[in-house]
UniProtKB/TrEMBL annotation:
Pfam families: cNMP_binding, Na_H_Exchanger
GO biological process, one term: regulation of intracellular pH
Subcellular location, record wording: Cell membrane
Membrane topology, from the record: Multi-pass membrane protein
Limits of the Cyclic nucleotide-binding domain: 708-822
SMART domains named among the record's database cross-references: cNMP
Originating species: Roseivivax sediminis
UniProt GO cellular component terms: plasma membrane
InterPro entries: Cation/H_exchanger_CPA1, Cation/H_exchanger_TM, cNMP-bd_dom, cNMP-bd_dom_sf, RmlC-like_jellyroll
GO MF assignments: potassium:proton antiporter activity; sodium:proton antiporter activity
Record field: transmembrane: 6-24, 31-50, 74-93, 100-122, 128-152, 173-191, 203-224, 244-268, 288-308, 320-341, 361-380, 392-416
UniProt protein name: Sodium/proton antiporter, CPA1 family
Length: 840
């Protein structure tokens, strides 16, 4: 085939891609279904014109289409890496990690279970060997999420649900292809029969080897991209090369999974790029990959669909019956996963609660697509696979894919409509009527002012005002009929709106370079969690998510252990600096949200709801301020440096806004504006470098500020600061339990704790200590201590505490006060007092 013909066919395919999307929207079909339909029609028409005697004029075009160089390797090596890499770049890794259990279980368990069910059902009725049937089961077990996820987004389904479906599909591609590669060795002729144990023994290499290759190449790519930071086209080009190099290196060099390597490389770039690349480059890279994936996904569907008529040649009624068996078995396997396993995970609190209508939509939306056809094509192209297995796999896999696209795809929106998922809930419908009434009242006032300024004809203005007034009156009456909305529901809706406004404010700060891309993604993840928890559990869920946003995450705890045990300070210093910046930004945004409540939410939901939202917001602000106070106490010099840097970045942001406004008003020209922007960019670059945090030095400063240590000399204070171990606690954390052996004393640097013994309780705050009494009286601990606010504690072991107690009258007095408060006699204090008197 000549180069001109290939180029002409590719150009025609892009025309087809451009036409298919608006046509799919008009016909209310999933885009992938429209593309597949085009491909089937074109492939069928080409076969028809080659065989018919009606005309020979179209034979060259038909031959070009049917002989177009489409092989399984084209799908697996050209298109698949692009699709997988783009999905991983677009994922919110922090939110995916929240749901990693259901994603992994649904992906891996679902693929393995579907493979067994489909293979077993087919083997029982077809007389074909079980291994070949299992091979087919692995081929049809991978799903294409694009249709169902796009529809979920169009009907405002919970984001977490769409995220789980998307994550499941990404991972089940890798699982299905890995199982497919394992089973292919058992059906190929001319190669030694692999032992099952040896084949399963290679499975860890397939998975772990792919992960290792992907992570390694991803890290290398990020290092090179950081080194060429001034050249954006070079960075884009390196990102394009990465998934293909990862796929080839894993498959051809190591014999591992190329799919897993691409996913691992994409996750590595996703995690590292926001901190290594400039915000503009990272944004442009994701947009570029979005366009590449759009083209790759469209081309893979069209080209795969072109093969369907060829793969279904000579289909018999027996084949149709076996396709029905595959359809039934695959649907049954997926139904068991969705209606048995998923509810079980929800009961175990490992997965979000997924309502039955959504599970039904996921079941019917499990479309199969290009990956299934590509794997089937790989079997039919292999000369080592027996002819009967080639034909069986080609016909059944293609027939099943055709069923999902034509039957399930064309009726998916109808099913969603019958399930009522495309309709507003009664609460949202009532809210919509109120929003319309409030909006129209504002519009009437603005239109009235505008028409008076424009000097329009009085009769025309009066006529239009009358029509608008009638519409407004109808909207107000409809809103009055919606008075049944409970305050509880209004608060929930207000919290959802509040989280949405918070997200917009953070994105505005990111666009103005007030915060780095890496921290922006982390903060946005916390905001998304606020929104989802508010939608699911109202005020209770919002408070829970707010506490988590301010609390100490697992990565911070790991970094703290590394420092306390091995004196590795870099991870803790970096995460502490991140925490500073995040809390500073949260505090500023929370102040702006107060204005949003009064300006927008109060008009829709009323004064009482606005007051409740103000109260919730103020509690959040108190938690943030308390956490900030704790950090300022620990790292006073560093806190001042960060706040000064924040002010300088704010000044630069406002300066940029002023220059942009002058440019838009025509007061400065293009050349001057460009020069001013370049100067600002250089100053922004200087401020992008965050000051370093010296954890060891800062802990010594903290010990110096502690009231109980104020009388110690410098040498003793230095030794003490090295012995003190920092510990962070979230609200509700158990710090000391009953009946435990007393061996540690805690000093409260910030926050508060509650001590409970028998029916009594005491609250302790900054500057106080606990854990010392049971240690000094040599008794088993009879009280428990919990944090009642995010707290920073300094822990000291028994030997050092006793030594410090002998040297410090201030600590002796503090211990005596706590003992008197609880009515406990401490003989050791009395002995120390006598020694002091005799020494005097």
């Amino acid at each position: 085939m000549s180069v001109i013909v290939v180029v002409a066919v590719i150009a025609a395919l892009f025309v087809l891609i451009g036409v298919a999307e608006p046509l799919a929207g008009r016909l209310r079909l999933p885009y992938s279904v429209a593309l597949a339909a085009f491909g089937i029609v074109i492939g069928g028409a080409a076969s028809f014109f080659l065989r018919t005697d009606l005309t020979d004029a179209l034979n060259p075009v038909a031959e070009a289409i049917l002989n177009f160089p489409v092989r399984s390797n084209v799908f697996l090596y050209v298109f698949l890496p692009t699709l997988l890499f783009q999905v991983t770049l677009g994922m919110n890794l922090r939110r995916m990690l929240d749901d990693w259990v259901p994603i992994i279980v649904l992906a891996v368990v679902a693929v393995a279970f579907s493979t067994l069910v489909v293979g077993g059902a087919l083997a029982s009725v077809s007389g074909i060997g079980i291994v070949a049937c299992l091979l087919l089961g692995s081929i049809v077990s991978t799903t294409d999420p694009s249709a169902v996820v796009s529809i979920f987004r169009s009907i405002a389904a919970p984001r977490r649900l769409a995220r789980i479906v998307e994550g499941e599909s990404l991972m089940n591609d890798a699982a299905a292809i890995a199982i497919f590669g394992l089973l292919m060795g058992f059906v190929m002729q001319g190669v030694p029969d692999p032992a099952l144990g040896a084949a399963l023994g290679r499975f860890p290499l397939i998975v772990l080897g792919g992960v290792g290759v992907g992570v390694l190449l991803g890290q290398v790519a990020m290092m090179v991209m950081s080194a060429v930071g001034r050249y954006e086209p070079a960075q884009m080009s390196l990102s394009v090369a990465l998934p293909y190099l990862a796929y080839i290196a894993a498959e051809q060099v190591l014999g591992a999974s190329g799919v897993i390597a691409v996913v691992a490389a994409g996750i590595t770039v996703n995690a590292s790029a926001p901190g290594a690349l400039s915000p503009g480059v990272w944004q442009n890279m994701r947009e570029m990959w979005g366009l590449l994936a759009h083209w790759a996904g469209a081309l893979i569907f069209v080209l795969a669909a072109l093969l369907i008529p060829r793969l279904l040649e000579g289909v018999s009624w027996t084949d149709i019956g076996l396709i029905g068996v595959v359809v039934g078995a695959a649907l049954a396997a997926r139904a068991l996963i969705l209606f048995v396993l998923l509810p079980l995970l929800s009961l175990l609190r490992l997965s979000p609660q997924v309502e039955r209508p959504y599970r039904t939509a996921i079941l019917w939306g499990g479309l199969r697509g290009a990956v299934t056809l590509a794997l089937a094509l790989a079997v039919t192209e292999s000369g080592r696979v027996p002819d009967d297995i080639q034909r069986m796999v080609g016909v059944l896999a293609t027939g099943y894919t055709l069923f999902t696209l034509v039957v399930q795809g064309s009726t998916l929106r109808l099913v969603i409509s019958r399930l009522g998922l495309d309709k507003l809930s009664p609460l949202d419908a009532a809210l919509a009527r109120q929003v319309v009434a409030v909006a129209l009242q504002s519009v009437r006032e603005d239109v009235k002012a505008a028409t008076e300024n424009y000097g329009l004809s009085h009769d025309i203005v009066r006529s239009e005002a009358k029509g608008f007034g009638e519409r407004l009156e109808g909207a107000v009456k409809a809103a009055e009929r919606s008075a049944e909305i409970l305050d509880r529901d209004r608060v929930t809706l207000g919290l959802i709106a509040l989280a949405g406004a918070e997200r917009d404010m953070i994105l505005d700060r990111f666009r103005e370079r007030a915060v780095s891309p890496r921290l922006t993604e982390r903060i946005l993840s916390d905001v998304d969690r606020l929104l989802e928890q508010a939608r699911q559990s109202g005020r209770l869920g919002y408070r829970r998510a707010a506490r988590r946003a301010v609390g100490i995450d697992p990565a911070f705890r790991v970094a703290l252990r590394l420092y306390n045990r091995f004196r590795i300070s870099y991870p803790l210093a970096r995460l502490t600096a991140d925490r500073f910046e995040i809390l500073l930004l949260q505090g500023l945004v929370l102040r702006d949200l107060d204005t949003f409540i009064d300006a927008r939410i109060r008009r829709i939901h009323g004064r009482r709801v606005a007051e409740l939202l103000h109260e919730l917001l103020h509690r959040r602000a108190e938690m943030v301020e308390q956490a900030l106070d704790g950090l300022r106490l620990q790292y006073p010099g560093y806190a001042e440096e960060l706040e000064r840097r924040f002010i300088r970045r704010t000044a630069l942001r406002l300066e940029k806004r002023e220059y942009d406004q002058l440019f838009e008003e025509g007061l400065v020209g293009v050349e001057l504006h460009t020069d001013l922007m370049q100067r600002l960019d250089r100053r922004f670059a200087q401020e992008d470098t965050r000051p370093a945090l010296d954890i060891v030095l800062q802990k010594a400063e903290l010990a110096k500020q502690f009231p109980l240590f104020s009388e110690l000399d410098e040498a003793t204070l230095r030794r003490l600061s090295r012995a003190l171990v920092t510990r962070y606690a979230d609200e509700g954390d158990l710090l000391l339990s009953r009946d435990s052996t007393p061996d540690t004393v805690f000093f409260i640097a910030s926050g508060a704790v509650e001590l409970r013994a028998a029916s009594q309780s005491w609250r302790l705050g900054r500057g106080e200590l606990f854990g010392q009494l049971s240690m000094l009286v040599n008794s088993v601990r009879r009280a428990e201590v919990r944090a009642i606010a995010p707290s920073t504690l300094l822990a000291l072991d028994e030997r050092r505490f006793r030594r410090l107690l002998r040297r410090s009258p201030a600590i002796q007095a503090a211990v005596q006060r706590s003992a008197e408060k609880r009515g406990i006699a401490v003989p050791e204090l009395e002995r120390l007092a006598k020694e002091a008197k005799s020494g005097g």
